[in-house]
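ok so i was messing around last nite and threw this chain in just to see what happens. nothing serious, just curious
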Amino acid sequence: MKKKLIKEMHKSGQICLPAATIGKLMNLPPERVGGMRLTRITQEFARGFHFLRNYGKSATFFGSARCVAGDKHYEEAKKLASLLSKDDFAVITGGGPGIMEAANKGANEAGGQSAGINIQFDHTQNVNPYVKESISFHYFFARKVMLAFASEVYIFFAGGFGTLDEFFELITLIQTRKIDPIPIILVGKDYWAPLLKWIEKDVYEKRSNIDKEDMKIYRLVKDANEAAHVIKKLVKKDNIRTA
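result:
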C-alpha cells in the first residue's frame, strides 16, 4: 500500500499533492483548502512521502509515551523491535519517549533502521536518542497520515488516548475498505484483553454494531516472542508485503 501510493504520487523525482487530494485526506471540500495553509500542508505531505521512500519492509510501533525503561511493556517493545530488525524490518515510531523510545532503541541496538515521525511543539521536537533518521510535522493530521501509510505491519502496546485513537482509526479504515487490509498486532493481554472483551460482548453480541469478521482485523498476542512469530508467519503467507 505504501509503495503503491508513493509510486502514484512520485513523478520525475517530485511528489505532488494537489488540493483535491489534500482536501480528501483532510475530509474537507476543496473550496476550504487554500492559501498559505495549503502550501504548508502540501510541503509537509511532500516531505513525509519523500521520507518514507527510504524504507522498504517496515513495522510501526504505537504505545504510551509515559512508559519507562524497566516496565515490562517497554522491555517487550524493545525486544520485538530487535527481533524484527534482524528480519530486515525498518522500525518506525512517533519518535518520542516511552514505547516509541523502546522500539527505536531495540532497532538501533540490533543494527536496524530506526526512524521517527515526530510532532513539533513551539518550534521544538522531542526526539528520543535512538532515532537514526527523523522528520517532524507541524500538523497532527499530516503526521497521522504518514504513520498510517508508513508500514506493512502495525504493532500496538499499552497506551493512552493517542494510542487508542490510532488503533480505532486504523481498524475503521480497514473495516470500511478505505485502505487495504494491514496486519494489526496488539501486544499484551493484560492491557488489551478487557477492551477486546467489551468489543466482543457489548459492541458485537449485545448491540450488533459491528460484524463478527471485523474482530479478525486485529490479533492479540501475549508478548514479543509471539508477536515476532505471528509476523514471520504472515510474511511467509505473503500477508505482509516485503517488496
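not much to say yet. Strands lie at 10-11, 14-15, 58-62, 90-93, 114-119, 133-137, 153-156, 184-187, 218-221.
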